[in-house]
Amino acid sequence: MATLNLPQVPGTEPSRAVLDAFRIAIAFQVHRALPQLTVEQVYPGVLYGVKGIDFTVALARFRLGGKPDEWAKKVTDSFQADEYVESATQLNGFVNFKLNTKSLMSKVLRQVDALTNHTEDKTPQYGSNSSGAGKNIIIEYSSPNIAKQFHVGNLRSTIIGGFLTNVYKANGWDVIGMNYLGDWGKQFGMIAVGFEKYGSEEALARDAIKHLYDVYVKINADASNDESVHDAARAYFKRMEDGDESALQNWRKWRDLSIEKYKEEYARLNIAFDIYSGESQVGADTLKTALDKLKEMGLVSESKGAQVIDLEKFKLGKATGLHYISLETLRLLSSELMEYPWAKSLEHVNFGMVLGMSTRKGTAVFLDDVIREAASIMKEKMMSNEEKYNAIEDPEAVSREIGLSAIKIQDMAAKRINNYSFNWSRMTSFEGDTGPYLQYAHVRLSSISRKNPELLPLPAADKVQTDLLTEPQAREMVFLLASYPDVVRVACEKNEPSGVVTFAMKLSHAISSAWDPLPVKGLAADQIEVARARLWLFLCARDVLGAAMRLLSIRPLERM
């Protein structure tokens, strides 16, 4: 078997994604048979994903002229097995390649172990790459309104935005996560008027968001029967706009207390922001500068005594002919209209709606209600096994994490552009492609070391006898582990979390299928190296499943 010095291909990182090395080796085989094609030209056509085949190359894509099956035959005729590829077979105009199993098992598992457990900064890095090195990105998401409880309407933006922050970092980008808050407007005048009547400093200190929301609801009820409340609110907000320090002092306190409470909410969701900004940061001077610029460019016209900007090309109209846009949307559109050079690099990552989201009792929901309900359901299910439940150190925290996993996986399982129906019974099931199922798979993998202390410590990675992993289930699992870096790259290119969810589910199912054919415990004394190789395989699978879960902002559990 030949040892191959692989050529370099731009955009590949074999040291971080070992399948890149196998693809390059296959591209080199095709190039050697068909020298008119370079390795770089062939590489994008080396594909996997067909059941029962490691990699396939369709010769027709290269437009060589003549019959693709004749070109395919040339490739198979000149094929030479090497440390990466053991066979090539022709099927019409396709060449199917089988990887060298011994190399696949050892190279993949060693890379997973090295990039998970032996990195310089001691952080798991398997799946990451440097494609975004030197690039900067701001991801703006969540954006709740200050003094209002975190509503489920903010949930999708928060979950998807948190994922995008993680996946861009994993692809080497320098990421700033920004929360652009709704922290300005007449509603603060309403809250100020309401606080004088209904406010409590004690309740404010205890839970600022809940108390300010309660005040807001009560004063709005008053305002529905008393127009003077609106007048007082407008007058108060005018004081804020004019820079009245006494009015701004209250607003700052409410804003700061609300942000602290939001940070607690986000921490529970495993989300963190680098910057909290908001509509209040767009001052009167900034607005005047923007308006003057738009006038100078001839984009402003008079209509019925008002100054208007034609936004027709942005297709924001409703059937009524009216427009509603937020300050945030206007800020983005103005950036494009005013020809800022960076405006073309702005991208709106859209997503579908959540349909039918409510508690089991059918009540309107805030995030707290949803998390509490999900945790309650999971706790009930956990308590059905009293022995395991009693072994859990903090069952409240564990049930909450499983509940959050259920919520997040249901949200990210389908393509983000699609609407989805919120379904309590489906998402909280331990069967099927759900968050609880992922947690169960990870917990089961985490328990394997505890159940096999006699096999520990494992030998160094280069001493584990991976050639003893001969079962097809082991090979299938290893190939999946090898594909994870590709999953991370594609997720970033498409701004799409569903592929990561699909990968995590496939891996969990492959792990489940491997338990019986690959027992670790109970083997004969002369099979100890087989047991160690299998244990290492399952631990590597745990590491990669955990990496995928963390990419989805899910905290992998060790026990449940």
Automatic annotation (TrEMBL):
InterPro entries: aa-tRNA-synth_I_CS, Arg-tRNA-ligase, Arg-tRNA-synth_N_sf, ArgRS_core, DALR_anticod-bd, Rossmann-like_a/b/a_fold, tRNAsynth_Ia_anticodon-bd. One of its GO terms (biological process) is arginyl-tRNA aminoacylation. It comes from the Eukaryota. One of its GO terms (cellular component) is mitochondrion. SUPFAM superfamilies: Anticodon-binding domain of a subclass of class I aminoacyl-tRNA synthetases, Arginyl-tRNA synthetase (ArgRS), N-terminal 'additional' domain, Nucleotidylyl transferase. Residues 438-560 form the DALR anticodon binding domain. It catalyses: tRNA(Arg) + L-arginine + ATP = L-arginyl-tRNA(Arg) + AMP + diphosphate. This is arginine--tRNA ligase. Belongs to the class-I aminoacyl-tRNA synthetase family. SMART domains: DALR_1. It is an enzyme of class 6 (ligase). It comes from Thanatephorus cucumeris (strain AG1-IB / isolate 7/3/14) (Lettuce bottom rot fungus). The gene is RRS1. Signal peptide: none annotated. Its EC number is 6.1.1.19. Keywords: Aminoacyl-tRNA synthetase, ATP-binding, Ligase, Nucleotide-binding, Protein biosynthesis. The keyword Nucleotide-binding applies. GO terms for molecular function: arginine-tRNA ligase activity; ATP binding. Gene3D superfamilies: Arginyl tRNA synthetase N-terminal domain (3.30.1360.70), HUPs (3.40.50.620), Isoleucyl-tRNA Synthetase, Domain 1 (1.10.730.10).
